[in-house]
Amino acid sequence: MKFFVIILTLFIYFVNAINSALDKPCLARRISGRSVICVCNFTYCDDITRDVPVNGSYVAYTTSEAGARFQKTIGAFQTLNHSLGCCRTSFDINPMKTYQAVEGFGGAVTDSAAINWKSLPEVMQKYLIDSYFSLKGLEYNMLRVPIGGCDFSTHPYAYNEQPENDTKLSNYSLSYEDYYYKYEDIVPAFTNPLTQRRENYQRLYFGCHIIDNIPMIKEISKVATSPVHIVATTWSPPVWMKTNHHFVGINQLRQEYFDTYALYHYKFLEKYAEEGINIWAITTTNEPIDGYFGLARFNTLGWSVEKMGEWIVNNLGPMIRNSVFKNVKILSCDDQRFTIPFWFNGILRKYPKALDYIDGVGVHFYADKIVPAAVLYAVSKTYPDKMILATEACEGSYPWQTEKVELGSWPRAISYITDILEDLNHNVVGWIDWNLSLNMRGGPNWAKNYVDSPVIVNAEENEFYKQPMFYAMGHFSKFIKRGSRRIEIREKKSFFTWSVKNVAFLTPDGTVVVVLLNEGSVRSVCVKCGKKEAILLLEANSITTMEFVCDV
Ligand SMILES: *[C@@H]1O[C@H](CO)[C@@H](O)[C@H](O)[C@H]1NC(C)=O
Ligand SMILES: *[C@@H]1O[C@H](CO)[C@@H](O)[C@H](O)[C@H]1NC(C)=O
Ligand SMILES: *[C@@H]1O[C@H](CO)[C@@H](O)[C@H](O)[C@H]1NC(C)=O
Ligand SMILES: *[C@@H]1O[C@H](CO)[C@@H](O)[C@H](O)[C@H]1NC(C)=O
Ligand SMILES: *[C@@H]1O[C@H](CO)[C@@H](O)[C@H](O)[C@H]1NC(C)=O
Ligand SMILES: CC(=O)N[C@H]1CO[C@H](CO)[C@@H](O)[C@@H]1O
Questions:
Q1: Of the ranges 117-121, 212-216, 385-389, which is most confident?
Q2: Residue 103 C-alpha to ligand 2 middle, in angstroms?
Q3: What is the pLDDT of residue 215?
Q4: Given the CA of residue 256, which atom of ligand 5 is nearest to it?
Q5: Which residue is catalytic, options 65, 103, 287, 422?
Q6: Which residues, if any, are the signal sequence (predicted)?
Q7: 183 falls in which pLDDT band (50, 70, 90)?
Q8: DSSP 8-state secondary structure symbol assigned to residue 386
Q9: Residues 72, 133 share a domain
Q10: Is residue 102 within 8 Å of 481, Cβ to Cβ?
Q11: Residue 262 to residue 491: CA distance in whole angstroms
Q12: What is the pLDDT of residue 545?
């Protein structure tokens, strides 16, 4: 028996060694004054396999400003020995004290993401999807999909724009056969050096929703390592349903179309189901405050607290729950976290019955730097059975960020990491990034609302670039599997050392995953769990994910 265990252990080591040897390292391109980007081209794209930690040892992965990308190290746990006293910073992990269960991590398949994906040669389309979703990639397991158009489309559109005032949505179709204007202005056609063909973007643009988004989701589902949970969101319904008859501006839903707008969601679930794609959750409209106050220059639908409550209780809730899609989750809010206390809680004060229909709230990232995460407790304390999911984030969206795509930016990776750590430590169950891939300008985007993305596609050079933000996401998504529970982790440090931001999880496989963000210079820390401890070296300006079995 013992012999068998030794052989098994050797075998595991052997497999690990092979896997590690097979990891394809980052093809680093240093951007002057910044960190590196990893270049994927027609023949090469880096990948990473997660090594299963063997008892008594840990596997750690490090990404740093200096250029490490998922750099693996293996180390040993030792019996606690207080005479060592080596660490000025230590982390006490208690797997017995558990918090929220994780749903997952992901990004958004917008029209723009799909168009950029499609602008690559086929072999690179596969690289891009594998990089995010496969066993050798970040193992994303969540997606957000717009219902109809959003700003990251090539023009504003919705389903069933014609005929007007069609309460039954008799002409609801995913493919829209529509005008081709504007797109050529946004992304000029170019000659693909590989094929020597002049790429016709109009082909992609023409009904891109059905042509590109659905195939992209299908390709994703083929390689994903756990079922992909899709969150679908409407930015704006057809303008005839709205008080101002425009996609943008101050507007609300016309009272006579409350049921039609619920049907608009139901039909989307139905159309995607016909394509073999099940939607996991819908939200109750993207950023309802924007349209209410006229804050945005992109597609919106404004909602007051009262009207939203009324719509959920009288229209959307009953329609979904009395249908074959009754298990589809309904997430409310889908707006900045500061809206929770007055907006989401406002709905529930006025329409407590909405609680019967709502599974939780979606929160967006853009005001997180000024609004304390403590507001999230307004949900998890008051409604402990409702989930909080981070449904949208991106860098480069603020007006003062004049450089929309900042290749190689380390501060933008830190911004993602800090926000994810903060959210996870406040009971958030998952974190969905925006556009999976954008072009070198951060588009296409009909409203010229260009932003950054973890993957930037340079179709003219037949390359795409994995930004530091990409690896930032991976330090969570690849290791914190769905069903993992957050566990207690306590930092003990001497007064004069800076804090290392942290979070810890117990995975369904029984391993412990710890994520540590070191924003200072190089140092050693002790990680203690049960009767054992390990010393871990944290590189300067780095994020480290450590996985091990806790011997309690
Ligand atoms: C891809 O990058 C590698 C490494 O720089 C290079 O050797 C290879 O020629 C590139 N392939 C193409 C098609 O550019
Ligand atoms: C590792 O330890 C766990 C419990 O501590 C045990 O269930 C498991 O069998 C061990 N695995 C190996 C390979 O020794
Ligand atoms: C603890 O560490 C000290 C110093 O390395 C060593 O002498 C001692 O034997 C260790 N004790 C145990 C229980 O491992
Ligand atoms: C249905 O929608 C299409 C656009 O998708 C439009 O061309 C057609 O005229 C519409 N049909 C009716 C009856 O309005
Ligand atoms: C749709 O309804 C609006 C408002 O009631 C009305 O002004 C408009 O003429 C109607 N459009 C059609 C095509 O019936
Ligand atoms: C496709 C796209 O960009 N969608 C979004 C990308 O991120 C920005 C930032 O929020 C959003 O505004 C876009 O809607």
A1: 385-389
A2: 26
A3: 81
A4: 5
A5: 287
A6: 1-17
A7: very low
A8: S
A9: no
A10: yes
A11: 47
A12: 98
Best probe residue, ligand 1, of 30, 39, 41 (max atoms within 8 Å of C-beta):
41
114 and 167 in a common domain:
yes
Choice from 78, 83, 87 to test ligand 3 binding pocket (greatest atom count within 8 A of CB): 83
CA pair distance 80, 175, nearest whole angstrom = 63
Q: Tokens standing for 379?
A: 């949900």
Q: Output the ligand 3 site: residues, CB below 6 A.
A: 79, 81, 83-84
Task: Say yes or no: CB of residue 11 within 6 Å of ligand 2.
Answer: no
Total of domains in the chain: 2
Q: DSSP string of 303-346?
A: --HHHHHHHIIIIIHHHHHTSTTTTSEEEEEEEETTHIIIIIHH
- Residue 3 · residue 29 · CB < 8 Å: no
The radius of gyration computed from the CA coordinates of the chain, to the nearest angstrom, equals 24
Question: Ligand 1 centre and the CA of 465: distance in Å?
Answer: 13
Torsion, CA 370, CA 408, CA 518, CA 513, rounded to 10: 90
Confidence (pLDDT) at 114:
75
Q: Are residues 179 and 296 both part of a single domain?
A: yes
> How many A from CA of 422 to the centre of ligand 3?
37
Decide which of 477, 500, 529 is a domain's last residue: 477
Pocket test for ligand 2, best of 57, 548, 549, 552 (most atoms within 8 A of CB): 549
> How far does residue 435's CA lie from ligand 4's centre (Å)?
29
Evaluate the CA torsion angle 145, 150, 156, 157 in order and state its sign.
positive
- Ligand index nearest the alpha carbon of residue 29: 1
One domain for residues 130 and 90 = no
Tell me which of 454, 477, 500 is where a domain ends. 477
Q: Residue 171 pLDDT more than 50?
A: yes
Active site residue 392: yes
* Cβ-Cβ contacts under 8 Å for 168 (sequence gap 6 or more): 260, 263
Q: Note whether 96 and 109 are same-domain residues.
A: no
| Residue listed under structure tokens 């919705």 | 158
Mean of per-residue pLDDT scores for the chain: 86
Let me know whether 56 and 192 are in one domain.
no
Is the domain of 369 the same as that of 386?
yes
Q: Which atom of ligand 2 is nearest to the CA of 8?
A: 13
CATH number at residue 66: 2.60.40.1180
Span from the CA of 169 to the centroid of ligand 4 (angstroms)? 11
Q: Decide if pLDDT at 435 tops 70.
A: yes
pLDDT 10s digits, 367-391: 898 899 999 988 888 899 999 999 9
The predicted structure's pLDDT at residue 541: 98
What pLDDT score does 117 carry?
A: 83
CA-nearest residue for atom 5, ligand 4, is 176
For ligand 2, is residue 420 a contact (CB within 6 Å)?
Answer: no
Q: Is 199 a catalytic residue?
A: no
How far, in Å, is the centroid of ligand 3 from the Cα of 539? Answer: 27
